[in-house]
Amino acid sequence: MRSLRHVTSINDLTNPEVEHVFALASQYLKRLGDKDIPYRIAKSTKAGQGRLLATLFYEPSTRTRLSFESAMLRLGGKTISSADPNASSAAKGESLADSVRMLSNYADAIVVRHKRDGAARLAAEYAHVPIINGGDGAHEHPTQTLGDLFTLRRENATLKNLNVAVAGDLKHGRTIHSLVYALARFGSRIVLMPAPGMGLPEHVRWRLRHEFPGTVVSEADQDKPIDVLYVTRFQAERAANEVSTYPRIDLKFLDDKKFSRARVMHPLPRVNELHIDVDRDARATYFQQAAYAVPVRMALLSTVLGLSEKKFAHYAGGFRKVKEELVEPPAGHGIACANPNCIVHDEIDGKYSANKFYALPSEPPRLRCFYCETDIADVRGAARTRGAAS
Ligand code: NCD
Question: What element of type H or E holds 17?
Fold first, then answer.
């Protein structure tokens, strides 16, 4: 069997691979860019002729799906799309696992978006073409992060030692989870500005602390100048309760001198958290950010499909991929993933995925779900609770 490159997490790519994608994206902008608009691709190549991309989206999308499709078409390839789960066999109860097995015979790569955390990993287990995660529940959105980092790099000329404030729903925001790992890996400092009760999940904080040594994470109530303010929307579709207060970034908020040079970024769509008046301000960078998605996704597709001259370096297992053994607790007796939104708990796809975990070498022992990467922080406690309940 050929070994495939899937991109389900930003940590599936090594730093040199991310750099390779950026170098290629810059080349596309240079060769195929709009001569009047520096972030816009205006021409196409023939590199992808005869290749097909499928976009399989179970959740709403504008930018991710259309910029992937635009990217594939600009590469000279073609696209097929399933964008409305109500109009596909998903409405008849078809599993994601069956859908990607079939689609693997219809296309050369598949971009998947799904409401369940860990769905992309499940898709990668069943597909025989590369799976690219276009956002899986609250887990990750790695290609958004590639676009974000590329924007940061182009606008600031470096990724090192930037103070990047992340604001809003840090709990459910998948763009945030991929982004903080990447910032940590490329040496930027993370400044947390969560909405009340919407802080980074415990397992994400734990990973930053233990797997990305040297990462600087701080709270926002300091006066140090911020280089980038990354705003996100409240992820209402993933949150059990509405929040009463949520940051609202407007020109008045940006008057604070620590934001005087801050680029304002946002993965979009915005709702009320980012005032449209900011659009006129020179610090607004979010439309460039959305535009850079095209060259970056062209570069990623070209790399995953092997269209570029310089292919992915031999797959080295991604960035510090957990090397621990996978443990599969016996069915019926096993510990289940602690995240209720994990794909293993899905009524349909749960049948295609077993509870399995990486055993992390920590004290107390932790188990990390293979699919959604949520940890069971206290394995002994979980086992005791299970014993008491049975
Ligand atoms: C994000 C997503 O889907 O996670 N959108 C996007 O892809 N640019 C952000 C969001 O929906 O808030």
Answer: helix 15-32
Same domain? For 59 and 16 the reply is yes
Query: Domain range for residue 163?
Result: 143-289
pLDDT given for residue 241 in this prediction? 79
SS3 per-residue string spanning 333-357: CCCCCCCCCEHHHCCCHHHHCCCCE
Residue 158 lies in a domain: yes
Is 63 part of the annotated catalytic residue set?
A: yes
Residues with C-beta less than 6 Å from any ligand 1 atom: 63-64, 135, 141, 144, 174-175, 232-233, 267-268
- Catalytic pick among 6, 51, 74, 113: 113
Q: Tens of pLDDT along 31-65?
A: 999 999 999 999 999 999 999 999 999 999 999 99
Co-location of 116 and 20 in the same domain:
yes
> For the chain, how many structural domains are there in total?
3
Residues facing residue 79 across a β-bridge = 53
Domain presence at residue 318: no
Say if residue 136 is in the same domain as residue 191: no
Q: Whose CA is nearest to atom 3 of ligand 1?
A: 135
Among residues 88, 68, 89, 86, the alpha carbon closest in space to that of 77 is found at: 68
Q: Is 172 annotated in the active site?
A: no
What is this structure's pTM? Answer: 0.94
Contact 2, 104 (CB under 8 A): no
Q: How far is the CA of 27 from the centre of ligand 1 (A)?
A: 26
Mutation pick for ligand 1 pocket among 145, 175, 286 (CB with most ligand atoms within 8 Å): 175
Say yes or no: 243 and 171 in one domain. Answer: yes
Q: Residue of the nearest CA to atom 8 in ligand 1?
A: 267
Residues 282, 380 share a domain? no
Shared domain for 222 and 131, answered yes or no, is no
The closest alpha carbon to 162, from 139, 190, 140, belongs to 190
Centre of ligand 1 to C-alpha 286, Å, is 13
State which of 304, 335, 357 marks the end of a domain: 304
Query: Average pLDDT over the chain, rounded to whole?
Result: 91
